[in-house]
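One-letter codes give the sequence; the fold follows as tokens. An example follows:
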Amino acid sequence: MMHPEVLQQQTTDTNHATVTMRLPAELAWFRGHFPQHPILPGVAQVNWAMQFAAALLPMEGDFSGMEVLKFQRPILPLETVTLTLEWQPARQKLLFSYCVGEVIASSGKIALCR
């Protein structure tokens, strides 16, 4: 299993969306990262941000690189997280953050190219 269990997704306007998801312990992303203390890898977080943004927002372009990426708290199996997305079309930037409750677990800014 590679994808989280989506509990709710909402597009609040043309350039903003949120996705609330539960992370089953069986997710392939948790295997081997790390064996005794599994956490959700950053590459999975960026991948999901891109996938959900492409599905929910009028995002144009392909991944060009990361400008900012901050990990403030590990995301663990069985947690419920909220992914917040903001598409900035004039700057070709996708901003994202993952929150566990009220606590920001990670955030980043992805640059896209046309």
About this structure: The CA atoms of residues 63 and 112 lie 5 Å apart. Residues 42-56 form the longest helix (15 residues).
